[in-house]
Write a structure and sequence with these properties.
With about 500 residues, this protein is an alpha/beta fold. The chain is built from 21 helices and 18 strands. It binds zinc ion. Zinc ion binds next to loops.
């Protein structure tokens, strides 16, 4: 007897159809799985055997061969437990064969036959819809995520027993899960932290607003306790709301990485990720024998925050460079190569010196000049070339902390940022790869950031008098363009340039 059950698997953030063929023969009992399975698939033999018996079915004492086709793509994970178990039951007439071509089945089995959630349900559902598959059976916890895909009937079930009953009869009477995508998307738009909670630091908030408005990467330099982390955490709340397509893209990555909370349909707010400085390069950009998305991809369409920047290993910071250019990362292994999107805003924070108090008027810095120079040198170079704004975060004054007055709410700042982004979107219509001012290359800067004679003079003076490096020139122009956009000004005025020049504090200490 042979049975064929449809299933699917992920490859990067995409999915593909897998056919699970089960063949039984009257020989010495055995159970083998072919089609490039990894260890997890081999382990599923034990789970399937236990689940089949514990659900009251008979496990055939035959020679069982399961083939996962196509054989040439590496498959991983435990999501084939359910289709393989159903395949065995269908091949022994314990489950209905006729309806199998209509449904795709995925799910991991517990020993008692309970269905456990899997990774990557959303990309799977999207691909099954594209292929015109009628329906999909998924573990209950993955139901909402799969049901985001309109035009595919999703049936969340709890156990192998329910899945067999579904195929035998229930498919005719069970209604597929429907989710109201629009209301889910609207409802989930809440932020956990608001700029109104941060007292004082108005200059820093302004710099973050400018960064958000132009999608510029930013570094904050200040003593411990000045609120750098608190400020960075609130950046997602002033970025323009995610579009539905952006939300889907981010959700796909979180789904594949297995970090989407159970019963969650969608990542509807911009992610904020803050990996510790001991992180490895593989964990940051993605990797592993079966490449997994790294922190930069989990931050896709959101914010990646690197606190204590100079503490990160040099090789870890080096690997950030390419993804910052490309907005994506390709992980190559001998047998496969996978590309994950990684379009994020980079926010870094650092102390001004190893002890942290170099710029603190209330405490004495104990570091010598040579030590500070060495510390600063750690972060110079190619990564800093991708960071448009540097802002000093002063120690918070007691007066500001004690003040009863609340700061401006994130929603008000977000509105200004969104307007500025619209101006940029219009300006860059038809320009490939250009969405925000931060994306401008030298050629675009010449075209869109023209300044008059007064501006030219101001910039020249700043560069010579403040000792700014030549590479600061382009970055100042880009940031000035954003400041002008926030002000609703067509042209870049001297005051926009002066403000942009203030956001280059590291140039002075690095050169
Ligand atoms: Zn110090």
């Amino acid at each position: 007897m042979v049975s064929k059950v449809l299933s699917c698997a992920t490859y990067g953030v995409n999915a593909f159809l897998v056919e699970v063929e089960t063949h039984l023969e009257r020989q010495i009992p055995g159970f083998s799985i072919v089609g490039l399975p990894d260890n997890a698939v081999r382990e599923s033999r034990e789970r399937i055997l236990a689940a089949v018996r514990n659900c009251g079915f008979e496990f055939p004492l035959r020679k069982i061969t399961v083939n996962l086709a196509p054989a040439d793509i590496r498959k991983e994970g435990s999501s084939f437990d359910l289709p393989m178990a159903v395949g065995i039951l269908a091949a022994t007439n314990q489950a209905e064969l006729d309806v199998l071509p209509d449904f795709v089945l995925v799910g991991e089995l517990a020993l008692d036959g309970t269905l456990r959630p899997i990774h990557g349900t959303l990309p799977m559902a999207m691909e099954m819809k594209r292929l015109g598959i009628k329906g999909m059976v998924v573990p209950r916890e993955n139901g909402k995520e799969a049901a985001m895909v309109a035009g595919l009937d999703v049936y969340p079930l709890s156990s192998l027993k329910e899945a067999v009953e579904f195929l035998n009869a229930d498919h005719a009477r069970l209604a597929p899960l429907r989710v109201d995508v629009a209301s889910l998307f609207a409802q989930d738009h809440h932020y956990f932290a608001d700029f109104a909670d941060v007292k004082g630091q108005e200059n820093v908030k302004r710099a973050l607003e400018v960064a958000a408005a132009g999608a510029h990467n930013i570094t904050m330099i200040g003593p411990p306790g000045s609120g750098k982390t608190m400020l960075a955490k609130r950046l997602p709340s002033i970025l323009p709301p995610l579009t539905f397509d952006e939300a889907l893209e981010t959700t796909k990555i979180h789904s594949v990485a297995g970090i989407l909370p159970p019963d969650t349909a969608l990542v509807a707010t911009r992610p904020f990720r803050s990996p510790h400085h001991t992180i490895s390069d593989a964990a940051l950009v993605g990797g592993g024998t079966v490449p997994r998305p790294g922190e930069i991809s989990l931050s896709h369409h959101g914010v990646l925050f690197l606190d204590e920047l100079p503490e990160f290993a040099r090789n870890v910071l080096e690997v950030l460079r390419q993804p910052l250019e490309d907005g994506a990362v390709t992980i190559s292994r001998s047998r496969l190569s996978v590309t994950y999107p990684a379009n994020f805003m980079l926010v870094c924070a650092m102390n001004p010196c190893p002890c942290g108090h170099y710029t603190d008027p209330n405490k004495d810095c104990t570091c010598g000049a040579a030590v500070i120079q060495k510390y600063m040198a750690k972060i110079s170079g190619p990564l800093m070339d991708r960071i448009d704004l540097h802002i000093e975060v002063p120690a918070v004054k007691y007066r500001e902390l004690a003040s009863k007055e609340n700061g401006e709410h994130s929603s008000a700042i977000r509105e200004r940022v969104t307007v500025a982004r619209h101006i940029q979107a219009e300006r860059f219509t038809g320009k490939k790869g250009l969405y925000a001012n931060a994306d401008m290359q030298s050629r675009d800067i010449r075209e869109f950031c023209t300044i008059d004679g007064t501006g030219e003079e101001l910039l020249r003076m700043a560069i010579t008098r403040l000792g700014l490096s030549a590479r600061a020139y382009d970055r100042i122009l880009k940031v000035a363009r954003t400041i002008a956009d926030l002000a609703g000004s067509q042209s870049i005025q001297p005051e926009h340039l002066s403000e942009a020049i203030q956001y280059r504090s590291l140039d002075r200490s690095l050169t």
